Q: What sequence folds into this?
């Protein structure tokens, strides 16, 4: 490839390339990147045309990187890391004058914790540009930190060992029952498990914590319904379809009439602010973390 063609490679193309390679699917990559599948296909086709090589083998089982495609994917990761480092160094130089702050957070924290903090942060540091990436669960937040896509993340314990974290608050897991449910006080495990349970799909971090908590007391929590959306789960409880165990922040706003109980053995998730261990953080990040702890 000639020197005059180097400028045709775009970071956005490399992000699409990596997403397809990691997911093994054009459609899944489109969902992750919030793009249309045609946009993902076009980006890969254009990249293959520019490079003159086939990057993926397409088939009924998805997209598989070719040998040269694997090599280019790894180099693309390195390129994007260097680009992120360039911006980070520029932010260090700019400090609070025109810097930026990139935050990743799981959805209920983004909804209930961040708005007040961001409002005060913007009053103190109006020149800082802020981006917030919201995710359904903790793993995506931590992945953004590792990939250099976020400077700071709002996650919950236990976090990965390559992160440094400080506790912000404790969010109680509560049990939601339909308005007409007749329950003992205090709630017992027997009363809880007598109701159909509405939970998230397999692999959800919060539900995994709750299931483990129940097993410590000899209780096996098994869902009758599995739903991704917190709002849908809460509304199903309100309609009398079953009970749900949820962190309080994820359940709010709780509809009128829905009964809220603590678990028979109370349990909490510890929400924390995290950064990549040994990361070189610009001043705006330290200021944001200090403000989070101050308001917490």
A:
């Amino acid at each position: 490839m000639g020197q005059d063609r180097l400028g045709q490679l775009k970071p956005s193309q490399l992000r699409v390339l990596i997403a397809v390679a990691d997911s093994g699917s054009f459609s899944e990559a489109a969902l992750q990147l919030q793009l249309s599948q045609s946009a993902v296909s076009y980006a890969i086709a254009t990249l293959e045309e520019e490079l003159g090589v086939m990057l993926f083998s397409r088939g009924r089982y998805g997209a598989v990187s070719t040998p040269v495609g694997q090599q280019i994917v790894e180099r693309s990761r390195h390129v994007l890391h260097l680009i992120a480092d360039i911006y980070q160094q520029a932010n260090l130089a700019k400090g609070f004058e025109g810097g930026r702050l990139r935050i990743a957070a799981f959805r209920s924290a983004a909804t209930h914790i961040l708005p007040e903090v961001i409002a005060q942060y913007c009053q103190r540091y109006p020149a800082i540009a802020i981006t917030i990436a919201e995710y359904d669960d903790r793993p995506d937040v931590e992945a953004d930190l590792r990939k250099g896509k976020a400077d700071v993340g709002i996650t919950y314990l236990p976090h990965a060992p390559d992160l440094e974290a400080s506790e912000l608050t404790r969010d109680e897991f509560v049990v939601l029952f339909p308005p007409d449910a007749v329950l003992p006080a205090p709630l017992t495990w027997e009363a809880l498990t007598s109701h159909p349970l509405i939970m998230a799909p397999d692999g959800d971090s919060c539900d995994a914590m709750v299931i483990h908590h129940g097993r410590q007391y000899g209780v096996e929590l098994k869902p009758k319904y599995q739903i991704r959306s917190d709002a849908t789960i809460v509304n199903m409880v309100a309609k009398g379809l079953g009970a749900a165990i949820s962190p309080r922040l994820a359940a709010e706003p709780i509809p009128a009439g829905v009964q809220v109980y603590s678990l028979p053995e109370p349990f909490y998730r510890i929400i924390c602010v995290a950064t990549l261990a040994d990361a070189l953080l610009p001043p705006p990040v330290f200021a944001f973390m200090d403000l989070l702890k101050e308001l917490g």
About this structure: The first helix runs from residue 11 to 23. DSSP finds twelve helices and eleven strands in the chain.
